[in-house]
């Protein structure tokens, strides 16, 4: 099984030994920063869907070797908490970051670079010229150019405009219509404790209003795309043989990148969850999993 868990959703895929897809599943967020127990629950929910689609049952759980690529797994304390507190039902489970499995999937296990632009943002290069990881600092401290960042920036502008501190904008009207919030108090109540995925849901509005000529939306996009462009430049300095953008916002961001960067981007060869399957296969081979007696092994491999 391969799992791709991010700030908005968790995807699972089950393949047989020959690489044939048997079933897929989809559940909620699985970012360790939002809680390791929640991530465990999301992984299991996605697995159970995939298991049902594959025509398997509970007795097959102990045959599953799982590769888990989860947001937040770059933080050692959280990854350790995840694997030591989880009594999973699988033969073995191997944990790494969503970034690593995205890169594995994008280039079919070969050298390359990738930037994830979804609810969060981060980048990785793994090539003969060395490895480099950028971003991935989480919603409060970073993730610039991500869906959550675009949505947060839009809400912040909206609040300032409603206070008379920024020019009125069609972006403000679009945010109010989408959220049903008619004033500052309503917006504050709605978003004061909102999860990153709730802000990310607003990101398409920013791009739509920018296309319609709204200056406020265009300024937000310019700032976010500028950051992603700087990630691209830094990662491409390692000269990876292939380089891809993935995630829900990747196509929109790619349209706004400078041409000299855009022409160096290649489409991903497969999805992140397929990269997670590849990761599971690699780990099983490295750990000689077929000789392991335990039916409940968990490892964090970074």
TrEMBL record:
Pfam families: BcrAD_BadFG (PF01869). Signal peptide: none annotated. Residues 2-280 form the ATPase BadF/BadG/BcrA/BcrD type domain. This is ATPase. It comes from Planctobacterium marinum. The lineage of its organism: Bacteria, Pseudomonadati, Pseudomonadota, Gammaproteobacteria, Alteromonadales.
């Amino acid at each position: 099984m391969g799992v791709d868990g991010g700030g908005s959703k968790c995807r699972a895929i089950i393949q047989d030994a020959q690489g044939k897809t048997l079933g897929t599943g989809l559940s909620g967020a699985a970012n360790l920063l939002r809680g390791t127990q929640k991530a465990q629950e999301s992984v299991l929910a996605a697995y159970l869907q995939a298991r049902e689609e594959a025509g398997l049952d509970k007795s097959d759980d102990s045959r599953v070797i799982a590769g888990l690529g989860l947001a937040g797994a770059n933080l050692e304390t959280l990854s350790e908490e995840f694997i030591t507190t989880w009594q999973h039902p699988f033969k073995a489970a191997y944990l790494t970051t969503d970034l690593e499995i995205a890169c594995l999937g994008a280039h079919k296990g070969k050298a390359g670079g990738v930037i994830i632009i979804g609810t969060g943002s981060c980048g990785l290069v793994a090539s003969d010229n060395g490895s480099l990881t950028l971003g991935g600092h989480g919603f409060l401290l970073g993730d610039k150019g991500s869906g959550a960042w675009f949505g947060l920036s839009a809400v912040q502008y909206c609040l300032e405009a409603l206070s008379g501190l920024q020019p009125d904008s069609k972006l403000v009207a679009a945010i109010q219509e989408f959220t049903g919030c008619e004033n500052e108090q309503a917006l504050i109540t709605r978003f004061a404790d909102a999860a990153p995925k709730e802000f990310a849901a607003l990101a398409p509005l920013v791009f739509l209003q920018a296309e319609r000529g709204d200056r406020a939306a265009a300024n937000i996009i310019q700032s976010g795309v500028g950051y992603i462009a700087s990630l691209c430049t830094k990662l491409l300095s390692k000269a990876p043989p292939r380089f891809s953008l993935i995630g829900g916002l990747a196509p929109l961001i790619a349209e706004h990148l400078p041409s000299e960067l855009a022409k160096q981007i290649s489409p991903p060869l497969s999805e992140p969850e397929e990269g997670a399957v590849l990761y599971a296969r690699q780990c099983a081979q490295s750990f000689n999993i077929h000789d392991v007696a335990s039916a409940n092994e968990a490892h964090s491999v970074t």
